[in-house]
Amino acid sequence: MRIVIVGAGRVGLRTARSLEESGHEVILVESDPATADRAVEEGYAVVQGDGADEETLEAADVADADAVGALTGDLNTNFTVCMIGKHHGCRTVMRIDEDYREDIYREYANEVDEVVYPERLGAILAKNALLGGNIRAIADIAQELQLVEFTVTDASPMRGYSLSELELPANSRLLAFGKADGSLRLPTPDDSLDLGDRLVILAEFDRLGDVRSLIVGETGRAAVGDA
Amino acid sequence: MVRAYVMIKAHTGEADRLRNDIEAIEGVERAHIVAGDVDLIAVVDVDSPGAVKDVAATQIQGVDGVEDTQTYIAMD
Description:
The complex is a heterodimer. Chain A is α/β, with parallel strands linked by helices. Chain A has 7 helices and 10 strands.
């Protein structure tokens, strides 16, 4: 895909790098000359200018782009970028700066297809690192919905049983399974639950405690949620 | 009449509820949810500059979920 990213700071530059590594074509837009120069030195195609200015985005060929990422630290700029991007038929992604705004933009901003809040994912990673243990929050899917990886321990009541015998609480689903020494894959009913096996479960926030008791047992150190 | 525009920074995602609460305040003509570094803008129409302070600083600030307000009085 052809993607325009506005903002070549920490978030924008890493996103650009990750997209290029996946084979996509990226054009960066950056207003600060020094930051723009640094991105050029790193080998990126950069248009220097204000992304909230339509001419700048046109210079970045927004008309031919598939998607626009408004990833600056300035909310006003980001929203304007999305408006211009949407006008040109692009998929638009807007970075926000405070988590309460996520719901507001999802509900009201038709120009914004997706909202991203980088600090939230950073906080989830930091929390996992600090807590260690047998529970790893992967993502907040929605305010009340979390994707969590649980590891089977000695204390797990389901240890030794198969997945067909696993009865998860209501409003929770098993999405992936991995043996202790293998990578995650789709679960099959015959998979047995042994020490160190991992289950990726999508569950409503209120159910996470029940899921944890079932799979990890009561020794799990970490309380999940509230990232 | 005195007209003023009040920029409102929230700390909750309940934008609908905030707008309704703010529009229910006497003196507030209407309120809009906006994109950017403030979340709502209220248009205030009152009799005196003193009443602007009461509506903006006291009543709007007192709505649950409002973090901060900034008021601009129209001069034309």
